[in-house]
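One chain shown below:
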Amino acid sequence: MHELSIAHSIVDTILTAAEPASKKDIREVRLRIGALAGVTKDSLLFCYDIATLDTPLAGSKLVVNDVPVTIYCAVCQAERELVSVQRFRCPVCDTPSGEILKGRELEIESLLIDEYAST
């Protein structure tokens, strides 16, 4: 289950980057995860709770925004969202494409910090 190591990396990244005073006030962490990132969303949500135990992020919520696979179709000369990751063909003209523009992401998108929690 590599989602646990991903969850630990997310926690480490946030704790390293966040202002010391705000760490305990982080209420929500938002991620963008592409369909080709190889991450199981439910496993990551479960592992996040484990990874945040005994850290300033304990009790924070993890929100995952799914990113669909988007390819570039040379025939249509346009970006196209795939209907299925099993079929790398333009959904409009049915031309095969291997030029992936989106769908591999695994990014921390934002943090929701309760600025009034410490006052």
Summary: The two ends are 39 Å apart (CA to CA). Strands lie at 26-34, 61-67, 70-73, 78-81, 100-102, 106-113. The chain has a mean pLDDT of 92. Helices lie at 3-17, 41-51.
